[in-house]
Amino acid sequence: MGNYIHGYLTGEQDRLLEQAGMLASLIYPWIDLAGRSKVLEVGSGVGAQTKVLLELYPEMHLTCVELEASQIEKARVNLRNYASSQVQIIQQDAQNLDLEEKYDGAFICWVLEHVSEPQLVIDSVFDHLFPGGIVYITEVFNSSFHYFPHGEALATYYKAFNELQKENGGNPDIGLQLGNLLKKSGFQNIELKPGGLHLDQSQPTRLKQMVEYWKKLMKSAAEELILEGKVDQATLEAMEADLDQLTQHPKAVFFYQFIQARAIKP
């Protein structure tokens, strides 16, 4: 696995919960797991997306796979109101799944960007699906980020942020490769769809909310970025100021795309 650049501290665990709620309206309209009784969630983390899935599909039995013990500990707290017959958490490396059961659905969200060998994850998911099983994936396309007005500190910080992810074995543009990964694993009926945000001053409240969230996302990697000498404290503070300026500018633009994929195991 690659190194998770956001870390595992309480603040980051809380950010994941906030992210799931903020982005749910963008992610889930295209996902249809109705009638899928046994679903595998890969890289379930603190259970943020798990909660959304269980709210949308209360009849579903969900098996969650997560490698990091501290994330699993937090997930058990976040999912404490769900019975063990409905949700199960297993500690495993998603690049080499070894599960006793097979599933009729799978879900992966914001995971492959952090993985050094995403093909191994897709292959493992393929092996653990019944014929006719469906997989849904949502992943990043960080090169799509566009904003106005330009902020030099934000540009510098964002470049360092993505470079750090690459150096840690991840891929900040992995969304663009989803179709190729699924095809190589043997999936068929592959569909790809861009999703995301295009915000400006016609939606000032939503713009400000997203910019405040974006600050938290950027700052989640600040400790390692500073430790590695890629940015300093002054650049961090200037990056936040650039984002604040964006919310106040009359011609402000915030644009970001992610990529979704679905496919069927023949």
TrEMBL record:
CDD domains per UniProt: AdoMet_MTases
InterPro entries: Methyltransf_25, SAM-dependent_MTases_sf
Top-level taxon of origin: Bacteria
Keyword terms, alphabetized: Methyltransferase, Transferase, Ubiquinone
MF annotations from Gene Ontology: methyltransferase activity
Protein name as it appears in the record: Methylase involved in ubiquinone/menaquinone biosynthesis
Coiled-coil zones: none
GO biological process: methylation
Organism: Algoriphagus marincola HL-49
Record-annotated Methyltransferase domain positions: 39-133
